[in-house]
Amino acid sequence: MSEKTAPLTEHLEDLRKVLVWSLIAVLIGTAISYGLFIDRIMEIVVGPLERLGQELVFLAVTEGFFTQLKVAFFAGIVLASPVIIWQLLSFILPALYSHEKRLFFPLFFFGILLFVAGIVFGYVFVLELGLKILLINFSGGLTPMISVSKYVAFVISFLLPFGIVFEIPLITYFLTKLGIVTPQYLRKNRRFIIFIMVVLAAVLSPGGDIVAQMFLALPMIILYEFSIIISSVVYKRKQRKMAQEEAEDGEKEI
User: What are the phi and psi torsion angles at 85 (to 5°)?
Assistant: First the structure.
């Protein structure tokens, strides 16, 4: 019994170390973000709203402080991400085969790159436009008075889905590589999958707002069409490789 439970306890101990070091890294990153960069970070966060001539207010005595702390915490996660990623890799990689490791590293790297690209895309091209439509065009003539905590929560819930959505091409590449999906399957089920994307946009968009749903659903559909192209390229390469291997096996038999 002890021989069977020992590996599990070792894994749990390794996982505990991963969580502890990751937590320490996040706390240090949060402290650095709050102590050195909080003013600059808040400028970036509230910049799109200020460019529209809108001002933020806070409705409770501690709201301003805790909102800045929340922003510093998310910035701390970003700063600590290299340590967190390294800890996760040290925990996961020993369990992978060599060919899985070769596939894991590029997928992991491009996964992070696409996630960040999605956040940046949402911030640069969509957030300010969405705020303009919601606060000015569709305000019904009412004067907005937005609390800082509600605004920060909106920005986070607005931008995070863009990071997730930008993973669609990478997921498609991975599933095609494994033979789970094909470009023919993606084309055949296009209408059904787009319907699911619209539903997901409704679920992920902040407050279920129809304008936010539209801003999120449109990139999802575009990325899905791009994913079909990626799947086609991967599938054709896979088919050529299989045909080449079959031809080589035939020559060996002869």
Answer: -65, -45
Beta bridge partners of 57: 147
Specify the DSSP class assigned to residue 36: I
| Residue count of the chain | 254
Q: Can you tell me the mean pLDDT for 42-71?
A: 90
Distances (CA, A) of 203 to 101, 129, 200, 216: 34, 20, 5, 11
CA distance 78 to 75: 5
Question: What element of type H or E holds 147?
Answer: strand 146-147
| Eight-state DSSP code of residue 143 | P
| DSSP assignment of 75-108 | HHHHHHHHHHHHHHHHHHGGGS-HHHHHHHHHHH
Centroid of chain to Cα 122: 11
What is residue 57's three-state secondary structure?
strand
Query: Six-digit token pair at 180?
Result: 């789970």
Convert the pLDDT of each residue in 165-202 to its tens digit.
888 998 898 888 878 889 999 999 999 988 998 888 88
**Shortest CA distance to 130 belongs to which of 163, 159, 161, 165?**
159
Q: What are phi and psi of 59, to 5 degrees?
A: -100, -10
Q: Which two tokens stand for residue 28?
A: 């240090």
pLDDT tens per residue, range 124-162:
888 888 888 878 777 677 788 889 999 998 888 888 888
